[in-house]
Amino acid sequence: MFGISQVHGLKQMWRSTGVVGSGLEVVLSSRRIIYLGLLLGFLLAIFKLVTTTPLYTARMVIGPAQIDSGSSSGAANGLRAQITSLVGGQAGGASVDPYSLFNELLTSASLAARLQQQHQVLQVLYEGRWDKETKQWKPPGLAGRISGAIKKLFGRPAWVPPNISDLQAVLVSGVTSNSDNGSPYFRVYSYKNTDPRKAEWFLRQLYAEADLETRQLSLNRANMMTSYIRAKLAATSETNYQAALGQALAQQEMLRMMSQSKAPFAAQLLDAPRASPAPTDPPLVTTVIIYTLIGGVFGVIAAYAMAWWAVTRRDRTTDGGVP
Fold first, then answer.
1. Exposed, middle or buried: residue 272 (CB in 10 Å: 0-12, 13-18, 19+)?
2. pLDDT (0 to 100) of residue 89
3. Which pTM does this prediction carry?
4. Mean pLDDT score of the chain, rounded to an integer?
């Protein structure tokens, strides 16, 4: 460990040698090395931009298809509480609005399975690994076989073709979601792909199938609730109860009609999927700046290291010449 006196002594030694007087002198006296570092960083940035497959970002903006006013929401809550007292809580349990359900389904395994069943999304996203003639997934190449052999050593399967779990992983990590200008209702969904048309297509199918899945789930629940309320209505003769159950039945019938219409059910597209005209990843300007600056930092470090090495060699030569 160097003490304060040793550090001051080292600084004094550097100043006395004339090789290093200050940090600025090092930079000025070693400009070529720093320029070389900047040039190497710039060249590495160009190499990365040339060799990295560019990605295009597609985005869409969605909002709720159904917006309830505060008065209707309050009336619905009052009706729900009334029905709870009649049927023991089954009909008046906590419910999720279609738009919230839609957003939750976007990362679900059920939606991944639906996308694969309806559109063969795995074959589209992993087109290079799918053999169109044999209708089978291509086995891995040499690198894949080596990786598979290593996996076998740890008791893992050597190779598994793309499956629903992989597609769900794309939904979870490949599709990003952000609020649109801080709004709690409108959301921006983005997805990156090497093919801009494929990115747009994927978001389009994602929205359509998620809305259909939400529609089907809501319709199934409305059908069950309709049958349940009708059975309760037939079993009671109390006028007030019949009126409350009649309102609940009308509400479920309305939901069934909405579920069977062709209009968007849970969410509507405010901005259709559209891909960026130029690649967004890797970012051109940011990559060049970062790599060039990193090269400059390494150039400065190299300059200091060479100055320190020159001082050390001079000291050794001087010490060797003393009898």
1. middle
2. 46
3. 0.72
4. 79
